[in-house]
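Page 37, top half.
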Amino acid sequence: MLLSQIVWDMSPTIIKIGSFEVRWYGLLFAMGFLIGFQIMSRIFKIEHKSEDDLDKLLLTMILSIVLGARIGHYVFYEGQHFAENPGGFIWDMLIPPYSGLASHGAAFGVLIGLFIFKNRNKSYDYLWLTDRIVIVSALGGAFIRFGNFMNSEIVGKASDLPWAVIFKKNFEFEQVPRHPAQLYESISCLILFVIIYALYNKWKDKTPRGSLTGIFFIWIFTLRFFYEFLKENQEAFEDNMTLNMGQILSIPVVLFGIYVLIKSFKRSSLAQ
């Protein structure tokens, strides 16, 4: 039986005591790290890596993702705040509560964070690290986008599809049936996680260096480019753009992924 429409009226807050509250987004964000840590722990044990290094890697990733995502959102979507408050832009950019986090900034932050970690831990190969981090990053992306759905944010454009959703808690846009764009991205990330984790489990340490990294960036940001056509713009300045900021930023990331994947194939063929 086809659905006529879905009315989504879930509160983004799980529990609130005074000024303290626990929100679905924060819980799902944390779950991504917790489950990801368990997966990385299994990988480190399989490949005989130090668990002490894993703890340091976790801290590096938390800082890299949060800082990268926040700085990215500020630079790409909130640049006008610098002109309005040049003396306090660092405070606005880095101190919670945040007005937004950018996945492109998070990706860039992770690449930098892994580079720093590799330079401090010389025994690790950079692409070995990225190939394993993208596994848990895909799962984390699924949790985060589901958190956006629970928050009734990053909504899609109006739609008459049977699974379109009316977001009753979103007061920024007209409350009409819309694409559940957050769920599209969440499911896509979950599918990617299953694929690249299965590829890793098949080859383990014989996984061609850079292959999973290339697949991750191509998959995530190609789909992101096309999903943006189904989503409302995040900022008003994007309304007059042919491609919005998310699409513009996705193009070089996809090209980077293609480059990494091609290099991976070349290295693999030369090693045979």
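Page 37, bottom half:
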Amino acid sequence: MTGLAIDDAAWASAWRLRSPADKLLLSGGLVLAALVLPAWPGSLLVGLAAVVLALGPARVPARTFGRAVRLPLAFILIGAVTAVVQVGDGGLGWAPDAAARAGGLVGHAVAGSAAVLLLATTTPMSDLLPALHRMRVPDAVVEVASVTYRMLFVLLTSLSTIREAQAARMGHAGIRNSYRSSGMLAAAVLTRSWDRARRLSDGLAGRGMETGLRVLPEVLPSSPRFVASTVVGLAALVTVSVLA
């Protein structure tokens, strides 16, 4: 089965056996700090803290973390550009405070994204979903997240299989063939995934599965030292950011 690099990194992380609640506290605190603290130096400190923790104690591969942050960064940069453009009598132009506004938006968003990726690259979904259930997150939300996560692997497996078949038939030889094969690939993946989802739904309904599938999750104890370090570290970030 085709895997996700982020998921593989989470299973191999040095923080794999830490309590998901502890990691949620850390990542959630960093996200909150990224939102409420000033972009300078608050967002910079939050982003650096998330990256250092991921690459250092958690031992997440730098290549994986860097590749994971590329797409969010692209969306952030596009959003920053559109946020500082204004329409006036002379047409399109830059807002008077374009640099400050764009810098603040990029700083907050990048720091928050790094904090979320810290959680994603250290906590497998099989640990995170039961933790969300214990935190009284609505069952419907947890089930939708679980099904979406499972269907990702169906999509990736279908994509890999069909693309390999196309490549074996020289389907990507030349620009014209590549466009044609890419369209056929998208149509085939969506059709196969829809059929797989329908058959999965019919199978569960035939077994009387009207509620969520209950499993026995692995119990990972919380670490008082980790929680205390998280609280002290977040307090230090806030103090430095406010006093700077």
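Margin note: Residues 5-123+219-243 form one domain.
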